[in-house]
Amino acid sequence: MPTIPLQPPVADSAPASHTVTRYDRQHFVTYWRLLDAEAEGADWRDVAKIVLHLDPMLDEDRARQSWRSHLARAHWLADNGYRHLLHGTPEI
Asked: Which of these, 87, 5, 71, lies nearest to 39 by C-alpha position?
């Protein structure tokens, strides 16, 4: 069974697919960390720096966009995407 990377590099935007992608599978830990940080009320800037490894002081727009996109994807996976995993839907 392949291992899930703990800190894979992140793209500027998470996938917008209606199925679970290879990128999603590589970023499960990232997504769960984002959801945990949101539940704890963490500031998005701290989360972007710690979880996404993007410095908002260097490029605030990019860091915020990446954080928003990945957090939205994390919510989609938690609310809907997990069903694709349960049914063995092939990744794209």
From this structure: 71
Q: 91 — phi, psi (to 5°)?
A: -80, 160
pTM of the model: 0.84
Separation CA 48–CA 39 (nearest Å): 15
Residue 60 in 3-state DSSP? helix
User: What's the DSSP call for residue 78?
Assistant: I
Contact partners, residue 10, CB within 8 Å, separation at least 6: 27, 30, 52, 53, 54, 66, 70
Selected residue with higher pLDDT from 63 and 88: 63
* Residue given tokens 């701290």 in the structure block: 46
**DSSP character for 2?**
P
